[in-house]
Write a structure and sequence with these properties.
elongated; 305 residues; disordered N terminus; alpha+beta; DUF881 domain-containing protein; three-stranded antiparallel β-sheet; Alpha-Beta Plaits; DUF881
């Protein structure tokens, strides 16, 4: 067969479809996207719920988060925004409050009667009334003496008479001379020996506050420098042992002395709590004859000499 009879074959057959890529380096294959798992298909006829719109956070939007009510209140209170007038008023109120507090505290500290019992208040009031009466009597006596001195023709004799009377009065108070007059007798029986020395001292103080002018316990004269010592049942007065029953002889106004001992919470009730037997009796004549030696002072001298 000759070459002329043989038909020429095409060098390359062209295939219809996607054109071929030009030759060159191979391109990397892109990874395939993952397939979503099939979920449950919505039922026919059911309306699909709309998905909630997502709110972007404050950091992404650039807007500050809204403040709560408490935060707005704190922001309004702090930092304080005060004017000069408000500062002045606040300073004045602070000074006024400090002054009132100091005044109230001073008043409460100096008031000794704030926490006192009713019995103590009654006793204190009775003592004040008696002391006022005695001061009034002393005032009238001094005024009478002054009137006598001014009206007397012989002022020297009148002055000497008043000096003698004053010396006698001082002798009664000092316990160097005997005394007599109206008063009361107080007897304290202590069979169980439970009365302490301080209870007898309280009785002396109560009698003096009621106007007692001369006091004697058993055979011991009570004066300004008298002291009590010892234990219950072994009481000593000025270093001298005194046995019970304790007998008080007191010269003074009976109408003042007896009520002072029998007031609620007074001497009689206090001694009876110690299981002592107490009796008080009035008398128009009480004799106080226990004496103390007169002592001449070593250093003190009368300024009139």
């Amino acid at each position: 067969m000759s070459t002329e009879d043989t038909p020429d074959k095409p060098e390359k057959e062209e295939k219809p479809g996607k054109p071929e890529m030009p030759e060159g380096p191979e391109r990397p294959q892109e990874p395939a996207a993952p397939k979503a798992e099939p979920g449950p298909e919505p039922e026919a006829g059911a309306d699909a719920e709309p998905e909630p719109e997502s709110v972007p956070p404050a950091e992404e939007t650039g807007r500050p988060a809204p403040l709560t009510g408490r935060q707005r209140l704190l922001n309004g209170l702090w930092p304080p925004r005060l004017t000069r007038a408000q500062l002045t008023v606040a300073l004045l109120l602070c000074v006024l409050g400090l002054g009132l507090a100091i005044q109230v505290r001073t008043t409460s500290d100096t008031s000794a009667l704030r926490g006192a019992r009713q019995e103590d208040l009654v006793r204190i009031l009775d003592e004040l009334d008696n002391r006022t009466k005695r001061l009034d009597d002393e005032k009238r006596r001094l005024e009478n003496q002054k009137a006598q001195l001014e009206s007397s023709s012989n002022q020297a004799a009148e002055a000497r008479k008043q000096t003698e009377q004053k010396e006698e009065q001082l002798g009664v108070l000092a316990g160097t001379v005997p005394a007599e007059g109206p008063g009361i007798e107080l007897t304290v029986s202590d069979p169980k020996g439970a009365v302490e020395a301080d209870k007898l001292l309280d009785a002396i103080q109560e009698l003096r506050a009621a106007g007692a002018e001369a006091i004697q316990i058993n055979d011991v004269r009570i004066v300004a420098d008298t002291y009590f010592s010892g234990s219950a049942g072994k009481v000593e007065i000025d270093g001298k042992k005194v046995s019970q029953p304790y007998k008080f002889k007191v010269i003074g106004k009976p109408q003042d002395l007896e009520p002072a001992l029998n007031i609620p919470g007074g001497v009689v009730q206090t001694l009876e709590k110690e299981q002592a037997v107490v009796t008080v009796s009035r008398s128009e004549k009480i004799v106080v004859d226990a004496l103390r030696p007169a002592k001449r002072p070593d250093y003190a001298r009368s300024s009139s000499q």
